[in-house]
Amino acid sequence: MDIRTIAHAAKVSIATVSRTINRVPTVNPRIAKRVWEVIDELNYFPNTQARALVSGRSWILGLIVSEITNPFFPELIQGFEEVAIEHGYEILVSSTNYDPKRMSQCIRRMLERKVDGVAIMTFGIEEPLLDQLAQRKVPMVFVDIGPDQPGVSILKVDYHHGIRQGVQHLAALGHRRIAFISGPMRLHSSLSRLNAFNASLEECGINPNPAWILEGDHTLEGGTAAMQTLLNGGDLPTAVMCSNDMTAIGVLHKMYRAGLRVPDDLSVIGFDDIHIAEVTIPPLTSIQMSRFEIARAAVTALRAQLEDAKDLPHQREFDIRTDLVVRESTSFPRGTMKNLRKAKK
Question: Where are the domains of the chain?
């Protein structure tokens, strides 16, 4: 079976079938629908290699992530693939594990497979590697920051909005002793989240305690170690905000091992709102950064540079919103209810 069979069954020309498969926008939508129905009915699988030769494009979008052990990234990959397939693209995924050498290998894989565009959902990419993509005019999309050059789009995450909601939520519960466990400070996103936290404390009239600002590494083990440092300090805060959910889950684990309870002894807030946050014990209050929204914005940004479609936004920056999701890991500071009962007496 080939496109001649499809053309005969759909009562159209071979050229129309070819243009339909290659998603050429000039094809009449009604005719394209009929062609796709015949393709489905006859269980025909288009030859993607032939398609690439005809169109001059691979119809593959590259996605580079930092790691795949953090559930945030598999969820992002799933959303990216879903949106890409919806628009006729396949995806090629690479993970850097925060290693510059791995990043170089990731870029090489993308170039060897002749991807049409690359979404770089990681940090620390070196300028020479960017040049390899830029010289070949490969469209790119970054999170937070990226080079100011043609063909580059940026997804701007509004960290301040969600973190401000989180700090205000804790302040409304009566917390004034609030700690923060950041991610690696070499990452722009970690610094942005810490700055948003400090600015939000100031808005609420709360003085930060430098001893309660700890650098983590965005892993469960890093959260456990940071919480141990707070416990060793003796003077405990009443709440901890974390730069991501894996750190927060590490805090929950350390509290459990220390015989302390969340939120009775300590309120905890994460960031990302990964799916597992709903089923931790207790369910984790977290600041949501939608993986699907990031994935859709990334694919849209790349398609805007690859396709001549009027319905696609031709802009350099795309805004990503963050919002607080309240669950059961936050409550009043320890002793609050006892103090209230004393006050009533």
Answer: 3-55, 60-158+291-321, 160-288+325-344
- Using CA atoms, how far apart are residues 145 and 339, in angstroms rounded to an integer? 47
Give every CB contact of residue 3 below 8 A, 6+ residues apart in sequence: 14, 17, 18, 21, 46
* Cα angle 135, 106, 56; round to 5: 50
Closest CA to 302 of 10, 75, 57, 104: 57
Domains 60-158+291-321 and 160-288+325-344 are alike in CATH topology:
yes
Which one-letter DSSP state was computed for residue 66?
A: S
CA angle 287, 160, 227 (to 5 degrees): 55
Question: For the segment 164-210, what is each residue's pLDDT rounded down to a tens digit?
Answer: 999 999 999 999 999 999 998 888 889 999 999 999 999 999 999 99
Tokens 């990334």 sit on residue: 298
At 14-60, the pLDDT tens digits run 888 888 877 777 888 899 899 989 988 888 877 655 555 555 678 89
Alpha-carbon gap, residue 292 to 85, rounded angstroms: 14
Q: What is the pLDDT of residue 124?
A: 54
Q: Select the CATH number that applies to the domain covering 60-158+291-321 from these four: 3.40.50.2300, 2.60.290.11, 3.60.40.10, 3.30.1370.60.
A: 3.40.50.2300
How high does pLDDT run on average in the chain? Answer: 88
pLDDT of residue 11: 92
Write the class of the CATH domain 160-288+325-344: alpha beta
The residues, ordered by sequence, that sit 6+ positions from 310 with a Cβ below 8 Å of its Cβ are none
Distance, in Å, from the CA atom of 132 to the CA atom of 283, rounded to the nearest integer, reads: 45
Residues contacting residue 242 through CB under 8 Å, at least 6 positions apart: 180, 181, 216, 223, 248, 251, 268, 269, 270, 271
What is the pTM (predicted TM-score) of this model? 0.82
Percent of the chain with pLDDT over 90: 57
Across 188-231, the runs of DSSP E, i.e. the strands, are 213-215
